[in-house]
Write a structure and sequence with these properties.
InterPro entries: AraC_E-bd, Cass2, Homeodomain-like_sf, HTH_AraC, HTH_AraC-typ_CS, MarA-like, Reg_factor_effector_dom_sf, Tscrpt_reg_AraC-type_HTH. This protein has 286 residues and is of the alpha+beta class. It is built from 10 helices and 8 strands.
Length: 286
Protein backbone atom coordinates (compact mmCIF):
# COMPACT_ATOMS: atom_id res chain seq x y z
CA UNK A 1 0.00 0.00 0.00
CA UNK A 2 3.06 2.25 0.00
CA UNK A 3 2.28 3.86 -3.33
CA UNK A 4 -1.25 4.76 -2.17
CA UNK A 5 0.26 6.47 0.86
CA UNK A 6 2.65 8.31 -1.46
CA UNK A 7 -0.24 9.44 -3.62
CA UNK A 8 -2.11 10.71 -0.57
CA UNK A 9 1.01 12.55 0.57
CA UNK A 10 1.09 14.38 -2.76
CA UNK A 11 -2.60 15.27 -2.43
CA UNK A 12 -1.99 16.56 1.09
CA UNK A 13 0.87 18.65 -0.30
CA UNK A 14 -1.52 20.21 -2.83
CA UNK A 15 -3.93 21.04 -0.02
CA UNK A 16 -1.19 22.60 2.11
CA UNK A 17 -0.08 24.80 -0.80
CA UNK A 18 -3.39 25.62 -2.48
CA UNK A 19 -2.70 29.36 -2.43
CA UNK A 20 0.68 28.97 -4.12
CA UNK A 21 1.59 28.55 -7.78
CA UNK A 22 2.64 24.92 -7.39
CA UNK A 23 3.95 22.87 -10.30
CA UNK A 24 3.30 19.26 -11.22
CA UNK A 25 7.01 18.57 -10.65
CA UNK A 26 6.78 19.62 -7.01
CA UNK A 27 3.56 17.67 -6.52
CA UNK A 28 4.89 14.46 -8.11
CA UNK A 29 8.08 14.69 -6.06
CA UNK A 30 6.00 14.10 -2.92
CA UNK A 31 4.97 10.71 -4.34
CA UNK A 32 8.48 9.88 -5.59
CA UNK A 33 7.28 9.33 -9.15
CA UNK A 34 7.69 11.19 -12.41
CA UNK A 35 5.27 14.02 -13.19
CA UNK A 36 3.80 12.00 -16.05
CA UNK A 37 3.11 8.90 -13.93
CA UNK A 38 1.61 10.94 -11.11
CA UNK A 39 -0.58 12.85 -13.54
CA UNK A 40 -1.80 9.66 -15.19
CA UNK A 41 -2.45 7.83 -11.92
CA UNK A 42 -4.32 10.79 -10.46
CA UNK A 43 -6.46 11.20 -13.56
CA UNK A 44 -7.30 7.49 -13.76
CA UNK A 45 -8.30 7.23 -10.10
CA UNK A 46 -10.24 10.50 -9.80
CA UNK A 47 -11.55 11.11 -13.35
CA UNK A 48 -10.31 14.71 -13.20
CA UNK A 49 -7.00 16.40 -13.92
CA UNK A 50 -4.69 17.84 -11.28
CA UNK A 51 -5.38 21.33 -12.57
CA UNK A 52 -9.14 20.81 -12.31
CA UNK A 53 -8.81 19.47 -8.77
CA UNK A 54 -6.84 22.55 -7.70
CA UNK A 55 -9.36 24.84 -9.40
CA UNK A 56 -12.36 23.19 -7.72
CA UNK A 57 -10.76 23.25 -4.29
CA UNK A 58 -9.72 26.89 -4.58
CA UNK A 59 -13.18 27.98 -5.68
CA UNK A 60 -14.76 25.96 -2.87
CA UNK A 61 -12.58 27.68 -0.28
CA UNK A 62 -13.15 31.06 -1.92
CA UNK A 63 -16.92 30.57 -1.64
CA UNK A 64 -16.60 29.68 2.03
CA UNK A 65 -14.61 32.84 2.70
CA UNK A 66 -17.01 34.89 0.64
CA UNK A 67 -20.02 33.82 2.68
CA UNK A 68 -18.39 33.78 6.12
CA UNK A 69 -16.19 36.88 6.05
CA UNK A 70 -16.34 40.46 4.84
CA UNK A 71 -13.26 40.05 2.64
CA UNK A 72 -13.51 42.09 -0.56
CA UNK A 73 -14.10 40.19 -3.80
CA UNK A 74 -11.03 41.77 -5.39
CA UNK A 75 -8.88 40.53 -2.50
CA UNK A 76 -10.30 37.01 -2.81
CA UNK A 77 -9.58 37.05 -6.53
CA UNK A 78 -5.90 37.75 -5.96
CA UNK A 79 -5.68 35.38 -3.00
CA UNK A 80 -6.96 32.43 -5.01
CA UNK A 81 -4.75 33.01 -8.04
CA UNK A 82 -6.82 35.16 -10.42
CA UNK A 83 -5.30 38.18 -12.12
CA UNK A 84 -8.50 40.22 -12.12
CA UNK A 85 -11.84 40.26 -10.29
CA UNK A 86 -13.52 39.67 -13.67
CA UNK A 87 -11.55 36.45 -14.23
CA UNK A 88 -12.41 35.32 -10.70
CA UNK A 89 -16.10 36.10 -11.15
CA UNK A 90 -16.21 34.20 -14.45
CA UNK A 91 -14.56 31.10 -12.95
CA UNK A 92 -16.72 31.36 -9.81
CA UNK A 93 -19.92 31.48 -11.82
CA UNK A 94 -18.85 28.59 -14.05
CA UNK A 95 -18.18 26.42 -11.00
CA UNK A 96 -20.98 27.47 -8.64
CA UNK A 97 -23.64 28.66 -11.08
CA UNK A 98 -23.97 32.05 -9.35
CA UNK A 99 -21.86 35.20 -9.15
CA UNK A 100 -19.68 36.09 -6.15
CA UNK A 101 -22.05 38.97 -5.35
CA UNK A 102 -25.07 36.64 -5.35
CA UNK A 103 -23.18 34.22 -3.11
CA UNK A 104 -22.44 37.00 -0.65
CA UNK A 105 -26.13 37.89 -0.57
CA UNK A 106 -27.05 34.26 0.07
CA UNK A 107 -28.84 33.95 -3.26
CA UNK A 108 -28.58 30.55 -4.94
CA UNK A 109 -26.69 27.36 -4.05
CA UNK A 110 -22.95 26.79 -3.92
CA UNK A 111 -21.10 23.73 -5.22
CA UNK A 112 -18.58 22.38 -2.71
CA UNK A 113 -15.73 20.06 -3.63
CA UNK A 114 -14.27 18.39 -0.57
CA UNK A 115 -10.66 17.58 0.15
CA UNK A 116 -9.73 14.36 -1.63
CA UNK A 117 -8.88 11.21 0.30
CA UNK A 118 -7.77 8.20 -1.73
CA UNK A 119 -9.49 4.98 -0.72
CA UNK A 120 -8.74 1.67 -2.38
CA UNK A 121 -11.21 -1.19 -2.28
CA UNK A 122 -9.56 -4.60 -2.45
CA UNK A 123 -12.12 -7.05 -3.73
CA UNK A 124 -10.10 -10.20 -3.19
CA UNK A 125 -9.89 -11.01 -6.88
CA UNK A 126 -7.86 -9.89 -9.83
CA UNK A 127 -9.65 -7.03 -11.65
CA UNK A 128 -8.85 -8.41 -15.08
CA UNK A 129 -7.05 -11.36 -16.60
CA UNK A 130 -3.32 -10.82 -16.75
CA UNK A 131 -0.03 -12.60 -17.24
CA UNK A 132 3.55 -11.85 -16.22
CA UNK A 133 6.14 -11.99 -19.00
CA UNK A 134 9.83 -11.20 -19.28
CA UNK A 135 10.86 -9.69 -22.58
CA UNK A 136 14.19 -8.73 -24.07
CA UNK A 137 14.68 -5.25 -25.48
CA UNK A 138 12.77 -4.67 -28.71
CA UNK A 139 12.27 -1.98 -31.32
CA UNK A 140 9.17 -0.26 -32.59
CA UNK A 141 8.72 2.12 -35.51
CA UNK A 142 6.12 4.78 -35.92
CA UNK A 143 5.37 8.45 -35.36
CA UNK A 144 6.22 10.54 -32.34
CA UNK A 145 4.93 13.82 -30.99
CA UNK A 146 6.10 15.73 -27.95
CA UNK A 147 3.40 17.06 -25.63
CA UNK A 148 3.55 19.53 -22.80
CA UNK A 149 2.59 18.40 -19.31
CA UNK A 150 2.08 22.05 -18.35
CA UNK A 151 -1.64 22.61 -17.83
CA UNK A 152 -1.99 18.92 -18.77
CA UNK A 153 -2.19 19.68 -22.47
CA UNK A 154 -1.20 16.08 -23.26
CA UNK A 155 -4.56 14.77 -22.00
CA UNK A 156 -6.45 16.60 -24.75
CA UNK A 157 -3.85 16.52 -27.52
CA UNK A 158 -2.98 12.80 -27.58
CA UNK A 159 -6.51 11.81 -28.77
CA UNK A 160 -6.07 14.36 -31.60
CA UNK A 161 -2.81 12.62 -32.53
CA UNK A 162 -4.67 9.32 -32.87
CA UNK A 163 -7.29 10.98 -35.07
CA UNK A 164 -4.58 12.35 -37.36
CA UNK A 165 -2.88 8.96 -37.68
CA UNK A 166 -6.18 7.33 -38.54
CA UNK A 167 -7.19 9.97 -41.07
CA UNK A 168 -3.90 9.92 -43.01
CA UNK A 169 -3.75 6.11 -43.13
CA UNK A 170 -0.64 5.72 -40.98
CA UNK A 171 -2.42 3.24 -38.73
CA UNK A 172 -3.02 0.88 -41.67
CA UNK A 173 0.62 1.16 -42.68
CA UNK A 174 1.75 0.27 -39.16
CA UNK A 175 -0.50 -2.78 -39.07
CA UNK A 176 1.09 -3.95 -42.34
CA UNK A 177 4.63 -3.36 -41.05
CA UNK A 178 4.07 -5.26 -37.81
CA UNK A 179 6.49 -8.22 -37.81
CA UNK A 180 7.50 -8.47 -34.14
CA UNK A 181 6.24 -10.59 -31.26
CA UNK A 182 3.73 -7.97 -30.12
CA UNK A 183 0.86 -7.88 -32.59
CA UNK A 184 -0.98 -4.63 -33.28
CA UNK A 185 -0.44 -0.91 -32.92
CA UNK A 186 1.25 0.43 -29.81
CA UNK A 187 0.54 3.60 -27.88
CA UNK A 188 3.83 4.33 -26.05
CA UNK A 189 4.27 6.96 -23.33
CA UNK A 190 7.80 8.24 -22.69
CA UNK A 191 8.65 10.79 -20.01
CA UNK A 192 11.52 12.50 -21.85
CA UNK A 193 12.45 15.00 -19.12
CA UNK A 194 12.25 12.97 -15.89
CA UNK A 195 14.01 15.68 -13.86
CA UNK A 196 12.08 18.68 -15.17
CA UNK A 197 8.87 16.87 -16.02
CA UNK A 198 7.74 19.51 -18.51
CA UNK A 199 7.18 17.34 -21.58
CA UNK A 200 6.55 13.79 -22.67
CA UNK A 201 6.90 11.90 -25.94
CA UNK A 202 4.00 9.85 -27.18
CA UNK A 203 4.47 7.28 -29.92
CA UNK A 204 1.97 5.56 -32.15
CA UNK A 205 4.05 2.67 -33.41
CA UNK A 206 4.33 -1.06 -34.03
CA UNK A 207 6.80 -3.78 -33.04
CA UNK A 208 9.13 -4.04 -36.05
CA UNK A 209 12.42 -5.76 -36.83
CA UNK A 210 14.49 -4.34 -39.69
CA UNK A 211 15.65 -1.05 -41.15
CA UNK A 212 13.52 1.92 -40.21
CA UNK A 213 10.97 2.54 -43.01
CA UNK A 214 10.80 5.92 -44.74
CA UNK A 215 9.02 8.74 -42.90
CA UNK A 216 8.95 6.81 -39.64
CA UNK A 217 11.18 6.87 -36.56
CA UNK A 218 12.41 4.10 -34.27
CA UNK A 219 12.17 3.71 -30.52
CA UNK A 220 13.92 1.02 -28.48
CA UNK A 221 12.10 -0.41 -25.48
CA UNK A 222 14.42 -1.77 -22.73
CA UNK A 223 14.27 -5.33 -21.48
CA UNK A 224 11.85 -5.70 -18.60
CA UNK A 225 9.40 -7.83 -16.71
CA UNK A 226 5.86 -6.89 -17.73
CA UNK A 227 2.38 -7.47 -16.42
CA UNK A 228 0.07 -7.76 -19.42
CA UNK A 229 -3.62 -7.04 -18.79
CA UNK A 230 -6.32 -8.25 -21.15
CA UNK A 231 -8.90 -5.64 -22.15
CA UNK A 232 -12.16 -6.79 -23.73
CA UNK A 233 -14.78 -4.30 -24.85
CA UNK A 234 -15.33 -1.21 -26.99
CA UNK A 235 -12.91 1.70 -27.00
CA UNK A 236 -12.28 3.92 -25.17
CA UNK A 237 -14.56 2.77 -22.33
CA UNK A 238 -13.01 -0.67 -21.81
CA UNK A 239 -9.46 0.71 -21.78
CA UNK A 240 -10.33 3.45 -19.29
CA UNK A 241 -12.13 1.00 -17.02
CA UNK A 242 -9.18 -1.40 -17.01
CA UNK A 243 -6.68 1.35 -16.18
CA UNK A 244 -8.81 2.31 -13.19
CA UNK A 245 -9.04 -1.30 -12.00
CA UNK A 246 -5.27 -1.70 -12.33
CA UNK A 247 -4.50 1.33 -10.16
CA UNK A 248 -7.32 0.93 -7.67
CA UNK A 249 -7.27 -2.87 -7.23
CA UNK A 250 -4.36 -4.71 -8.77
CA UNK A 251 -1.36 -2.59 -7.79
CA UNK A 252 -2.42 -2.13 -4.13
CA UNK A 253 -2.88 -5.90 -3.78
CA UNK A 254 0.43 -6.78 -5.45
CA UNK A 255 4.05 -6.53 -4.36
CA UNK A 256 5.08 -4.90 -7.63
CA UNK A 257 6.05 -1.35 -8.46
CA UNK A 258 6.15 0.44 -11.80
CA UNK A 259 9.60 -0.04 -13.34
CA UNK A 260 9.70 3.48 -14.74
CA UNK A 261 10.20 2.68 -18.42
CA UNK A 262 7.54 3.28 -21.13
CA UNK A 263 4.22 1.50 -20.74
CA UNK A 264 2.24 0.23 -23.72
CA UNK A 265 -1.32 0.06 -24.92
CA UNK A 266 -1.73 -2.54 -27.65
CA UNK A 267 -4.58 -2.29 -30.17
CA UNK A 268 -5.68 -4.84 -32.76
CA UNK A 269 -6.98 -4.12 -36.28
CA UNK A 270 -10.51 -5.31 -35.48
CA UNK A 271 -13.57 -3.11 -34.97
CA UNK A 272 -12.68 -0.94 -31.92
CA UNK A 273 -16.36 -0.40 -31.12
CA UNK A 274 -17.21 -4.10 -30.93
CA UNK A 275 -18.19 -5.46 -27.48
CA UNK A 276 -15.67 -8.26 -28.12
CA UNK A 277 -12.78 -5.98 -29.16
CA UNK A 278 -9.50 -7.26 -27.67
CA UNK A 279 -6.63 -5.03 -26.60
CA UNK A 280 -3.91 -5.08 -23.94
CA UNK A 281 -2.12 -2.90 -21.42
CA UNK A 282 1.58 -3.64 -20.80
CA UNK A 283 3.03 -2.20 -17.59
CA UNK A 284 6.75 -2.63 -16.76
CA UNK A 285 7.18 -3.87 -13.19
CA UNK A 286 9.87 -4.53 -10.63
Amino acid sequence: MGWIESLQRAIDYMEDHLLEDITIERIAAQANVSPYHFQRTFNVLTDISIGEYLRRRRLTLAAKELTHTSCKIIDLAYKYGYDTPEAFSKAFRRHHGITPRDARKGTGKLTSYNRLVIQVHLKGADPVKHRIVEKEAFDAVGMKRTFSLVNEENLSEIPEFWNDVHEDGTDNRLFQLNNGHIEGILGICVNCEPEKGQTMDYWIATNYMGETPDNLAKISIPASKWVVFEVVGPMPTAMQKTWKQIFSEWFPASDYQHAGIPELEVYSDKDPFSPDYYSEIWIPIK
